[in-house]
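Quick start: what a row looks like.
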Amino acid sequence: MLQIGFIGLGSGAAAALLFASVTSGTALSIPLAYLAPLPLMIAALGWSHWVALAGALIGGFAIWLFFGTLFSVGFLAGIGLPGWWLGYLSMLARPVGNGGPASLEWYPPGRLVIWSAVLAAALVLLAIISVGFNADDFRETLRAALREVFRIAATEGGDTGLTTLRNPDRVVDILVVALPPATAVMATITNALNLWLAGRIVKFSGRLTRPWPVLADMTFPPRAAAALAIAAGLSFVDGLIGIVAGVIASSLLMAYGVLGFAVMHSVTRGLSSRGFVLAGVYASVLIFGWPVLALCIIGLSETFFHFRARAAVKRGPPAST
């Protein structure tokens, strides 16, 4: 019991420190802040979700002591509770057949990716409604915040920021539209990537009690595609409904991008050039960014065209030895 208490304290302190590193303003602080959920997820996967929940609350309390209520709420909403919830879901299992450890059905990885997108969208929506329920008020608040960011950058960095642009107001207007869905996309990636990394770390330590899933075979529930279609359609509606729908559509679309990666891993099985193809896919996404849209389309199309099943039929059964 004492060990669990220390682990909860340590995971919460580590998460709080990683989250608070963004206040230093250094270039390294950004990737460190993105890793803030990792200690809590490791605690949940390796020990218990109660340990992760205790760590989340301890981290939130520490952030409140040093930075105030706003930062504490941000930590709990964006780091603590999502890290705990994803860790909790990852270790859910139910008996199938005659029961026993070998016949447990674990929570599917595809649903964990969907949950990563849902939690990311919820975080952005919480930030939106904290401003108010009026779209114009939200846009003006975000516009003023962006202008202040550029002003500070221009003051501290010399002749930089909005003063060097030909049409600075146009740039700010574009960012006001693009920032909420872009934030949802980044939060989805952060949730999913931290969960994968936590699983690998705990598996390497020997404490992971669930078998490692075949990620290339993950599937999404059919309702996810319907939700994406509805959100994408509503995103063209004016006002707050359109903003909210755009955030939800962006996070779900990124989830299908993750599914697109899984499809690529599956359909390239057995190819002699598999390593080269996958390396090219990952490199293009990391360098250029926009190729991830093709993976989103592949992941969404998999729901209807079943590329992995078709590729498995073409490969045929494995050769007998």
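That is the whole record. Residues 1-91 form one domain. The beta strands are 93-95, 104-106.
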